[in-house]
Specification:
- Helix content is 30%, strand content 20%.
- It starts with a helix and ends in a 6-residue tail after the last strand.
- The protein has 5 helices and 9 strands.
- The longest helix is centred in the middle third of the chain and has 17 residues, at 64-80.
- It is α+β, with helices and mostly antiparallel strands.
- The protein has a single domain (24-196), classed as 3-Layer(aba) Sandwich (Glutaredoxin), CATH 3.40.30.
- It has a 7-stranded mixed beta sheet, with helices on one face. A two-stranded antiparallel ribbon has the order 6-9.
Length: 202
């Protein structure tokens, strides 16, 4: 009996010390999702049959850093959607904690800014949890590999949250350009700078 208890304790210690996967890492396969867009339609990654990949941005209405990056996010879609890398924005914030990020406010914001890309609502926060995003904005560049989508880059849009013109390293552009040229992404992960995600159970 004593040996059984000791064995059980050993297993519990090993489980406690085991690494916990917290969102996608580089090279992971991304699961498809279905979320409501600001136009009322449901959007899925499989809607883009000819996509070479995606630029997935976890973003919101209210974060000052997100607002600084807003024009850059719109520019990324304009630059790469026609080349096979459409941009998809997802609002991960709980409206219970951030009223300005409710679905109705998202609709108004997208209309005001003239978004021509999906701006999706994640009310259960299931998708943001799967990706492991922590900030707004937080970017995941995905590449098509056969019938799967693999994570090729995670992190910031560039290295200057204040001014686009002062950014020395445009990480997302570099990643997508490399993929379009059939090359490896040289910088695969950076630290996302922005507001922390408003989790409903936090």
């Amino acid at each position: 009996m004593k040996r059984l208890i000791l064995s059980s304790l050993a297993v519990m210690v090993l489980m406690a010390n085991a690494p916990v996967k917290d969102g996608y890492e580089i090279g992971d396969t991304v699961a498809d999702f279905k979320l409501k867009n600001v136009d009322g339609k449901t959007v899925s990654l499989t809607d883009w049959k000819d996509a070479k990949g995606f630029i997935v941005v976890f973003d919101c209405n209210t974060c000052p850093v997100s607002k600084k990056y807003n024009d850059r996010i719109m520019a990324l879609n304009k630059m790469y959607a026609s080349k096979g890398f459409p941009l998809i924005a997802i609002n991960p914030n709980s409206p219970d904690l951030s009223a300005g990020d409710s679905y109705d406010e998202m609709v108004k914001y997208a209309r005001k800014k003239g978004y021509n890309f999906p701006y999706l609502y994640d009310p259960s926060q299931k998708v943001v949890s799967e990706f492991g995003a922590t900030n707004t904005p937080h970017v995941f560049v995905l590449r098509k590999a056969g019938n799967e989508l693999k994570v090729a880059y995670i992190g910031a849009i560039d290295d200057n949250a204040r001014e686009a013109s002062e950014a020395a390293n445009k990480y997302v552009e570099a990643a997508v350009n490399a993929l379009l040229e059939g090359k490896d992404v040289s910088i695969t992960k950076t630290r996302a700078i922005g507001c922390g995600i408003k989790w409903k159970n936090s």
